[in-house]
Amino acid sequence: MMSVRSCLLSGLAAILLAAGPVAAAKPPTPDEAAEAYVQGRLALAEDDLGTAAQRFDLVLKAGADDQLRRRALDVAILGGDMPAAVKLANQIALQSESAPGEGLEDSMVALTRLAGATAARDWKAYDAARIAFAAPGRGGESGKVLATLLEAYGLAARGDVAGGLAIVEADDAKGISGSYMSEHRAHLLALAKRWPEAADAYGAIVAAEGANVTRLRIAAAAAALEAASSNPQYRSKAILILGGGPARDPYLMEARARLAADPKMQGRKLGAMPQRASEGLGLLFLRLAADLGRERATGPALSFARLATFVEPGLQDAWFVTADALVRSDKPDLALQTLDKAPTDAPTQLIANARRASILASEDRTDEARAILQRLTARPDASSEDWARLADVERRAKNYPQSIALYGKALQLLPEPAGPAHAQLLFLRGSVNEVAGNWADAEADLRKAAELQPDNPVILNYLGYSLLDRRMKIDEARDLIARAYKAAPDNGAIIDSMGWAEYVRGNYAEAVQLLERARAAEPADPTVADHLGDALWKAGRRIEARHAWNSAAALSPEPELQALLAKKLDFGLDIALASR
C-alpha cells in the first residue's frame, strides 16, 4: 500500500472528478498535459491544493489510465470524498472485469464498491462487490474471515439474520480471526433479538477484555437489559457490567447515569448494539481500522475508518480513528475537520475536544489548545485527565510554574491507592521541575514515580541521567540507567545514557562503543552526537571527535549546546568545558 504522501503526490483525481468544467475548450496536448502534471506536483508539495487541482484537471482531460484512477481512489478515500471514491471504484471494476487483480489495492476497490452499495441499500450491487472481494487468493485467513462476515451482513440486510448467524457460528476461526467472529456473532445475535444469547456473548468478550471494550461493555449491558424482560437476573448483570469499567470513561459515565435515572430502561435506548446490518458492517470496518492503527499501518487504517464513517456516520469512534490516522499522516488540519463531523452527543464532544486540543498543541497553536482545555477544566466534573492535558500544553509552551501547579491539581483528583496513573503524573511534574531548575522537587517526584513503577525504563532513565548530569550519586545513577537498559536494550536514548554513565566514570573505550550504538539508533539527536564527540576526544580519537561535533552542530541543537559545540570545534574539549 503506497504511503499517504506518495498517494497525494501521484494525483488528485478524486477532487478533479468532482470539479466543474475547466476553462480549456479542448483536451490539452501531450506537452501541455506533461507541463500541467509537473506544475500540479509542485503545487501539491507546497499544499497549494487549489492550483494543484486545476493543473491535475488538465492532466485528466488528456485521459486517465487505470493506474491513475487507482491512485485517485486512494486520494478520494484519504480525503473523505466517499461518493467520488465509489464512482472511481465502480469505473475501475468495469475496466478490470476481464483481468481481475489481486492484493490490497483491488480489495479496497471491492470494499469501496460494497460500502457504496450499502449506503444506497443496493443489495444486488453489494453481492457483486462482496463476491469480487472474495476472489481466490485474496487476503489469506484474514480475508476469509472478512469475506464470511461480509456475507453474513449481506444476508442480515435482506432480513435473513438467521442465515448470517449460521455462517458465523459454523466458522472455527481461532486467534485474532476468532476474536472477530465472536464479536460479530454477538452483534448478529443482537440484530436477531436473541437477547440472553447476545448478552452472554457480549459478556464473554468483555470478561476477556476484548477490543473496543467500552462499546462492547455498553452493548453487553444493553443486551442484558433486554434479556431482563424474560429473566430478571439479567438486570443485575447489566448493572455489574456497567460498573466494572473505568470510572471516568465518558460513555460509561453517561450510561450509568441514564440507567440510574431510569432503572426500567430498555436496553436499546442505552445504545452500542447495532440496530441494522449496515451498523454491524460499520463496526467491522471500525474494528479493522483500530487494529491496523495500533500496528501503525496508517494508510489501510485510514481507508477502513473512512469506510466506517461512510456506511454509518453515527459511529463515534470511527471519527476518532480517522482523525488519529490523519495526524500520523501529517494532516492536522484535515484531522481537525474530521473531528468537526463527529456526533454531537456530550461524551463524544468531550473526547473530540480533548483530541482537538492535542492536535492544536502539537501544531504550536497554544492559545487555541489552551482555550479548549480551560473550558474542559472549568466543568464541575472535570477529570484528572483534563487538568493533565492543560498541564501538558503549558509544559510545551515552557510556562513551567503553571504546568507544575496543573499537574498537582491532576494528581489531587486521582483516587487512592497510588498506581500507574500517579506514577505518570509524578514523572511529568518531576521532568518539568527538573527543566525549571527545581531539582529538590524534581528528585522527590521522580523517586516516587520510580517507586510506584520500578520497572518503567523511561522513569528510571530520566532519574538516572538527571543524577548523572549533576554528577550526583554516580554509582546509583549508573545502576538506575542499567535497569532501564535491561528493560529496553534497543532504546537509543537509554543506550546514550549508558554510554554517558561510562564516560562520567572514566571508561572512555566502553563509552565510545555504547555511544556509537546510540548514534546509530538516534542519528538526528544532536545531544547523542555531542556525547559521542566528547567520548572520542577523551579516547584520543580527536579527528573523529570533531567530525561528531560537526554532525551535532548541523542538527539544529538548542542555542546553549550550539555555542558549546562551537567552542569545542575551535579550542577542543578541555578548554571549551573550562570556559563554561
Overall description:
This protein has 580 residues and is mainly α. Among the domains are: 1-138, Alpha Horseshoe (Serine Threonine Protein Phosphatase 5, Tetratricopeptide repeat), CATH 1.25.40; 471-580, Alpha Horseshoe (Serine Threonine Protein Phosphatase 5, Tetratricopeptide repeat). Helices cover 75% and strands 0% of the residues. It has helices spanning 4-10, 13-18, 30-45, 49-61, 66-79, 82-96, 104-120, 123-133, 140-157, 161-170, 175-191, 195-207, 213-227, 233-243, 250-261, 267-270, 277-294, 298-311, 316-328, 332-340, 346-362, 366-377, 384-396, 400-412, 420-435, 439-452, 457-469, 474-487, 492-504, 508-521, 526-538, 542-553, 559-571, 573-578. The longest helix is centred in the first third of the chain and has 18 residues, at 140-157. It is globular. Residues 1-25 and 98-104 have low confidence and may be disordered.
